[in-house]
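pinned: reference chain
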Amino acid sequence: MNKSIVLSIVVLVGILFSDQSFALAPNTIPILGKWRGTFIGFNNTEIPFIFEIKFSNKQTSLYFINGTETYYGGKLAFKGDSILVSLNQFDKEFAFSLNKNGQLVGYWRKQNGAGDSFAILASKENNTRFTSSGLPPFKNVSGKYDVVFSNDLGKQTKAVGLFEQSNEKISLTFLRASGDSRFSEGILNGNQFYSSLFIGYSPLLFKGIVNEDGSILGEQIGLKSILKFVAIKNAQAKLLPSNNEVSLTKNNQPFNFSFRNMQGKMVSLNDIRYKNKPVIVTIGGTWCPNCADEAMFLANWYKKNHQRGIEIITIQFEIINDFTYAQKQMKRFQQRFSIPYEQVFGGLASNDKVMESLPSLTEFKAFPTTLFINKKQQLVKIHSGFAGPATGKFYTNLIKDFNNTVNSLLQ
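pinned: its C-alpha cells
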C-alpha cells in the first residue's frame, strides 16, 4: 500500500476519535511526520524549528525536536479546514491550514487571541533545520566558554556557553544566573554557525562567526529583539555561585506565607502538613521553561523522597494576575509534569511583586528560585535559577548540591 495512503488512513482514524469535524478530504492531508517550521524574527531573520506530528493512543499530537530532546507540544484538534494545536503549558496555540502545496500555514498566538500573532510556514519536503554550505568546519568549537551578552543599551549579562560539535553538526546552550537556554541544534558552515530552538515559548536563533583565535562573535535573535555576544573558550568557565545565606525578617520571625491553591484553599507553612518538617519552596511560573525543567526533576524526586519527611510547595507567579487564569494554568502544569505536591498562586510574575508577596526575602533575582526551609520554619538557603539537563555537569552538580542540602535539613 502506498505510504501516503497509509498516513492518510491513520490521520482519518485520529479524526474519527476527535470531537471536531474536518472539512478537507483526508487523503489530501498526510500530516503525520517531521516538519520544518519557520518564524520571521527580528530584522526579518528566519528562525527555523523542527516538529513531528504523531498518532498514538487514539489521538494526534505534536512534538518539538531540539537536538536530543523531544518535547511534547499538544494535541491536534480539527475544526473545519483548520488544524489547532493547544500548547497548554505556555497558554499558546498553533492555528494552521494546509495550502495547495502541502504546506502548513498559520499563526502562533495566545489561546484567547489577545496580543500579537506570529506567522508560521511549515513544510515536510525539507525538514532539515539548516542547509549545509559544503564548507568544512573552520574549527572544532566543542567546549566551555566565558560569554558576555549585550543589549542595544549596553547592558551586559554574563553566561557560560556550552558547545558540542560532531562533524558539521553542533548543539549549544547558554547558562545564565537565571537558568539555561535549553537544547539548541544547528550547523557550522566554514566559520559561520547557526543554531535554533523552540518548545512553544520564545523561538530563538543563535548565529555567529568563529574567529582565528577560537573566540566567537555572535547574536541571539528572537521575534522582537537581538542580543550580541562575545564568547571566549575557557575550560574552567563558571558562573558566580547563586547560593546565599539569606537573613530572615526584621524580628527573626519564622518564614511564612499564605496563598490559595488550585482548589482555592489557603495554604500556609503553619498548616499541619508542613509543621516540624523541612520544606522546599520553589518560586516559579507555568510560563517559565526553566521552571518546567525544575518541575520535571522535583516531581520525580518528591515521589522518591517524600517518605523521608520533607515537603515541597511551588508558588506560581503568572503573566496575568487573575486567580481563575492561574487555576487553569496550574492544573495544566500539574497534569503535564505529574506534580504530586502543592501549587499556590502568588500573583503577577515580576520581581517586585515577588518581593511584595514574600517580604522575608532580601532580594529576588530570577524565576525559578528555590528556598530551603528548616524544621524550625527558618529560611536557611536560597538558590536562584535552575541549570537543566542541557547543561550536563552543571545539572548533575546542581542535583548533588540539592540532595546535600536536603540531607542537612533532615538531620
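why pinned: The longest helix spans residues 393-410. Confidence is low (pLDDT under 50) at residues 1-29, 245-251.
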